[in-house]
Amino acid sequence: MATSSEAAAIRSRRLHTVKNVEENVKAARQRALEHQKRIENLAKPLNAVSEKLARLDRERDAVTAARDRRIESLQSGLEKKIEKLKADTAAKIELAKKDTESKLAELHNSQRGSEDALLLEYAQAVVQFSFGGSNADLATVLGVPQKEAKELIVSSTADLEKAGISASRPADAAPAANSSAPAAEQPAPATEDKDAAQTAPVDAPALASA
After folding, report:
1. What is the pTM of this model?
2. How many alpha carbons lie under 13 Å from residue 126 in its C-beta half-sphere?
3. Cross-strand bridge partners of residue 198
4. Could you give the C-alpha distances from 58 to 32, 46, 51, 65, 84, in angstroms and in order?
5. Residues 133-151 pLDDT 10s
6. 92-117 burial, b for 16+ CB within 10 Å, e for fewer?
7. CA 88, CA 95: separation in Å to the nearest integer?
C-alpha cells in the first residue's frame, strides 16, 4: 500500500500528464487550422480560375441551349410553312386544271362551227386541186404517200356530197393535153389506175382517182 507521499507524487504526475495532453491537442489543432488556412490561401488562385472556367462553360451552355431552341423553332416553323405551301400549291394546281379544262371546253364549243366550215373548205380545195392535178401531184404538195392523197380526195368528195356542196372545176384546170377538144367532150383527168373511177359531186366534173 502506497504511502501518502507516493500517492501525492502519482497525483502530481497525472496532473502534469493531463495538462501536457491538452496542450498538445490544442497545439495540434492550431497547427491543423494554420495548415488548412495555408492550403486555402494557396488554393484561392485555383478556385478563382476554376470559377472563371465554370462561368465560361455556363455561358457556352446557355448560348448552345438558346441556339438549339432557336433552330428547333425555325425548323418547326419551316415545316408548317412547307405543309401550308404544299396545300396552297395543290389547291392552285387543281384550280388551274379546272380553269383550263373549262376554257378548253368553251374554246372547243366556240371553234366547232369554224372548224367544221374550215374542214369543208379544205375538202373543197382538195377536190378542186384534183381537177387539175393527179394524186401524185397532191401527194407531193402535202408530203404524204400517193395512196393517202388518193384517199384524201375520195373522203373530201364524200364530205362535200354529204354537206350538199358542189366543187366547181376552175376555168384553167383542164389538162393541157385535152385543150383542143370541145369543152363538153373533155374527159375526166386520168389517174394512175384507169380501172377505178371516182364519181364527182352531182354538178361537178368527174373526180380523178388512183
Report:
1. 0.36
2. 26
3. 207
4. 35, 18, 10, 10, 39
5. 898 999 999 999 999 999 9
6. eeeeeeeeeeeeeeeeeeeeeeeeee
7. 10
